Amino acid sequence: MAPPVFSAPSTDRSEQEEGSVLRPRFDANGLITAVATDAETGELLMVAHMNAEALERTIATGYAHYWSRSRRALWKKGESSGALQHVREMRVDCDQDAVWLRVECKRRDDTCHTGRTSCFYRIIQAGGGALATVIDPRPTG
Amino acid sequence: MAPPVFSAPSTDRSEQEEGSVLRPRFDANGLITAVATDAETGELLMVAHMNAEALERTIATGYAHYWSRSRRALWKKGESSGALQHVREMRVDCDQDAVWLRVECKRRDDTCHTGRTSCFYRIIQAGGGALATVIDPRPTG
């Protein structure tokens, strides 16, 4: 497969921030940050990364693809678990180093590999001289 | 100032993912990803990064602090613009390399330095053989 082709980031800040051309600013590792929220509920589901191929595959197929930093592999979200993410809308931020995916979850309860709707199930609590987290008591469905 | 002290990430996956101790997993550059949403509207406002000091300052003061990768400096969000972010709730994700801040914005219209409520004001559109972005026509207020 030929490498995906995106326009390069512009050195013109106005073009990068206000222009109509998608110019993803991949970092030194070739990655941008991707944030997925549930298109129905607005809930923040997960934060992951995309390389150029993952971004290209996501746009081309309408299903979220990420780059797994731990496995060093392209990863179609839900390919094995069934928790596919159908992309309803995709946005890019001002300097184009992050994208926001509003997704329809095919298996909502399995978005996080721990078996939860969202990866953000722990609230950070400060107090008593120690930093702790607490599992969110809200239903995850 | 003494360096902030957080517990180290655990090599025990269960402890890292289900334990009650905050164990932020900073990357090779000493950063974690931070996502801020509006505590009132749920809107995704911005994606940024935190080093240990920014995380410690955020928890200690209740106001969002980030690490500016471009300026290589600690950055109290809104310190110059007035667009402070008061943290209502802070969460950490499963492997503890990302945090989610639900914030109360002191100047909502100035969250993005381009003068918008959110940094994600452009929708990615594919079609006609080219990838483009379009400015969201919705009101930003």
Automatic annotation (TrEMBL), chains A, B:
What EC number(s) does the entry state? Answer: 3.5.4.19
Query: Which InterPro entries is this protein grouped with?
Result: PRA-CH (IPR026660), PRib_AMP_CycHydrolase_dom (IPR002496), PRib_AMP_CycHydrolase_sf (IPR038019)
Could you state one GO cellular component term attached to this entry?
cytoplasm
Record's keyword terms, sorted = Amino-acid biosynthesis, Cytoplasm, Histidine biosynthesis, Hydrolase, Magnesium, Metal-binding, Zinc
Record Gene3D superfamilies? Phosphoribosyl-AMP cyclohydrolase
Supply one GO molecular-function term.
phosphoribosyl-AMP cyclohydrolase activity
Q: Where is the Phosphoribosyl-AMP cyclohydrolase domain?
A: 46-121
**Keyword presence, Cell inner membrane:** no
As for subcellular location, the record says: Cytoplasm
Q: Where does Mg(2+) bind?
A: D93, D95, D97
Task: Write out the ranges of the annotated region (Disordered).
Answer: 1-20
Q: Which GO terms describe its biological process?
A: L-histidine biosynthetic process
- Catalytic activity entry: 1-(5-phospho-beta-D-ribosyl)-ATP + H2O = 1-(5-phospho-beta-D-ribosyl)-5'-AMP + diphosphate + H(+); 1-(5-phospho-beta-D-ribosyl)-5'-AMP + H2O = 1-(5-phospho-beta-D-ribosyl)-5-[(5-phospho-beta-D-ribosylamino)methylideneamino]imidazole-4-carboxamide
Cofactor(s) for this UniProt protein: Mg(2+); Zn(2+)
Listed pathway(s): Amino-acid biosynthesis; L-histidine biosynthesis; L-histidine from 5-phospho-alpha-D-ribose 1-diphosphate: step 3/9; Amino-acid biosynthesis; L-histidine biosynthesis; L-histidine from 5-phospho-alpha-D-ribose 1-diphosphate: step 2/9
Q: Which Pfam families match?
A: PRA-CH
Q: Where does Zn(2+) bind?
A: C94, C112, C119
- Binding note for cofactor: Binds 1 Mg(2+) ion per subunit. Binds 1 zinc ion per subunit.
Q: What class of enzyme is it?
A: hydrolase
- Matches recorded under HAMAP family: HisI
| Assembly and oligomerization | Homodimer.
Q: Which family does it belong to?
A: Belongs to the PRA-CH family.
Q: What is this protein called?
A: Phosphoribosyl-AMP cyclohydrolase
This chain's source organism reads Jiella pacifica
